[in-house]
Amino acid sequence: MEPVIHFKEADILNGENIVVYGLNMDIMPGDFVYIIGKVGSGKTSIIRTMTAENRMEKGEGVVCGFTLPGIRSREIPYLRRSLGVVFQDFQLLTDRSVEDNLEFVLRATGWKERGRIDSRISEVLEAVGMSTKAHKMPHQLSGGEQQRIAIARALLNKPSVILADEPTGNLDGETADEILQLLQDLNAGGTAIVMVTHNRSIFEKYPGRVFSCAGEHCEEVIDEGIDVTL
Fold first, then answer.
1. How many CB atoms within 10 Å of residue 216?
2. Residues lower than pLDDT 50 in the chain
């Protein structure tokens, strides 16, 4: 079984500066992986490298079969269709309904048939428990509901991996638990999850592999007693 994400001795950039040296990371299908660390430790830069938003020059990097060093501009949209990305601030289009938000993404990624579009929207809304919210506007939804819609959006093209960058950062504790349980359920169905967080209680309550970023390095925490400063 091949990893869906592979880094070997990879230097991770933020702009022109290296923020993580020599990253070694293999994420397999079905893994649930946390990337933790203080603000500025390179967590989000790793996610941006995975989506080819940040360029990569040194070391090996392969995401969903795409080789990152030297990736061509025309390949990047296809790489990103293999990924689902969930953000802390939801990033829904505020001037259109939930259904129209999802349709916009499908059409932007090549879907054309009305019947298939409607069917896929129904499927992902059901998957996140939001089947009755299709005609709502984002401002009519709670923060937790908006994040569920953001996760539905990430599922549209049946990604191999969901990248979640602080997805519970703007949510209260109870709602954050609901979102984590949803991600756990999706993971149980075979989708790999990579989640950036600085919330210790999350990765202590919901087990997974943990990579800790500090001192310009990011390494897997092997010991069961996770000792990191956040």
1. 15
2. none
